[in-house]
Amino acid sequence: MSSVVVTAIGELTTHDPELGTLHGAAVVAEAGAITWVGPAAHAPAADRRIDVGGRAVVPGFVDSHTHLVFAGDRAAEFAARMRGERYDGGGIASTVAGTRAADDATLRALLAARVAECRAQGTTTVEIKSGYGLTVADEERALRLASEVTSEVTFLGAHVVPAGAARDDYVALVTGPMLAACARHARWIDVFCEPASPHAFDGDEARAVLDAGRTAGLELRVHGNQLGPGPGVALAVELGAASVDHCTYLTDADVDALAGGDTVATLLPGVEFSTRSPYPDARRLLDAGVAVALASDCNPGTCASSSIPLMIALAVREMDLTPAEALYAATAGAARALRRTDVGVLAPGNRADLTVIDAPSHLHLAYRPGVPLAHALDLMPDARR
Ligand code: NIG
Ligand code: FE
Question: Which residues form the signal peptide (predicted)?
């Protein structure tokens, strides 16, 4: 197996408490894993050498929340929102229709292109949800396709109640036959818990979905408190979910629960940007000691961007995170939201997922928004992340 040294790293952000940030550094990797990190002058010999010419290197971005399996777009819905229309989840139905109508080859190609787009912008781990099928066969297919490109696959049959279905019947389907068909393709189960949306699920329905998922061997994540205050955060913490995502409308009790629990608060500022909504109060969470992650939520409705650098820039500009806090949230924080310790931190033994910034420091991610500076380094081509 051949080894590779990545050298002449101007600024290396490791997020490892002992290694910290290094200047003039090198990383050695073998078989996709880091074997050594330190000053370039002391790097052990390797079979191959990649000189990054003084650029910054950071842990590959971990996008812990995406909905990449879909067909069609909702650009017109976005334009209507920019004219003042409100988002309530109703547009999901149009993506469901487009996705059901696409054949496997088309969906697989769309998904592959989106994963490549993520990687080209520095993302090396991506979570992918179902949720645009909403029948047993269509959800099972979405998860099967997602599992071809990532190990972080999430069953989101409980995205919305599909048109024409009765709520109770649909929850029974999701927790019964749909879960039975889908569980083997997924690691996670998720639910859109949002009483403020007529299409999504209330606290009792969300609890039923999560309980059934756990019984089927899945780990828990929740979409909560996106459109208004609600039970999503409290439920996620009570059930020990790995993450509760959105967290835009939080009470003091929600913040206290998050601070006292083991659930990561994942913030998705691309959604507030693309729905012209108020941003979550990230400082309130960080100051309370809550573990925070940053992800894209890339989906055709509320955020059609897969750019983690954009999310970092928004977190810095709109949510008062420092550039270092935002980068941490999009790497180590998001890894924690996926209960992963092998990514998000560059240290011996971890995955050799390195992202190069075409700039001397990580500050440029927020300082130069919209400029394509970040790229994942291909040390060991491996499609499954
Ligand atoms: O995370 N909140 C629910 N689901 C997605 C939006 C999906 C859509 O509108 O297509 C979200 O924002
Ligand atoms: Fe989402």
Answer: none
